[in-house]
Model the fold of this input.
Amino acid sequence: MKIVGKKRDYYDSAGWYSEDVLYVRKKMDYQAEDLEKGDLENLERVFENHPQCGLERNLVIIGFCGKIYPTYFLSKTVKKHTLDLGTNFETWAYSTKEIQDFYGAKKAFPDNYPYPGRWHKTIVREYFRQWIGSDVCLNLFLNLNIPIFITERHTLSSCREVSSITVNPLLKEFKFQKIFDPYTAHQEMEMFVGGILKSKENKVLDIEDKYLITQKGFDEKYGFRKRPGGRKRGKHKPNS
Done:
C-alpha cells in the first residue's frame, strides 16, 4: 500500500507499486495545550532524563509508529589549509558511536569530564539505550491518531518544556534511514497505520476524495468513461 503527500519521504517508493492508499501525509502542528496531560508529561520526561553534556538544545525526539527515537543534530566546520574559509558538515546522530565518529574520540568524549560543551560517553550511551525504541509515548500516537511526529525543547532557560509537536515531518531530513531502511520503514507504517491505529478507531483512516476515486477507476481526463483503445467485452453467446 502506498503513502501519498505533497512531498515524498525516503521510504515512500517501497509501496508505490500499489494502487491502494495506506496513508495521506499532511504536515501540521499541535500545541502543548492540545495534548493530553499524561502524553505531555511523558514527552517532557524524555527531555528531563537527558544528560547535561552541553548540547541539550540540539536534541530532537522523533516519534515513529508507536516508539520514540531521540537524535542529536551535530555540526562542525573544517578549515581548508591556511584559508579562513571552511566547509560545514552536518548530520543527525542516534548513537554514541556516531557522535564519536563525527567529532573524533578526544573531542567528543574527553577524559577530563565535566567539560563545558562536551560529552560523557557513558551517560550519553545510557540515554540512547533507555529511550531509542521506547514505547513510553504510545498513548500520544493513539490519542492523536498519528504515526509520525517530532518535537524539540522549547527554550534553554526552562530546558524541558515542550511547546508543540509537528506531525508528519519528512524523516529523510533527520537521516532516519540510519534507524530503518526504506523497505522496513514502510513495513512499520503498514503494520502501525493499517493495524494498530485502524483497529483502535475501527475505521479506515480518512483518505482524500481524489485518491479514493482514483482507486475506483476514475481518470482525470476521461472520468469513468472507457479509455481510447480499450477493448469492449463481448456478449456471451449461448451454445447452439
Summary: The two ends are 47 Å apart (CA to CA). Confidence is low (pLDDT under 50) at residues 202-208.
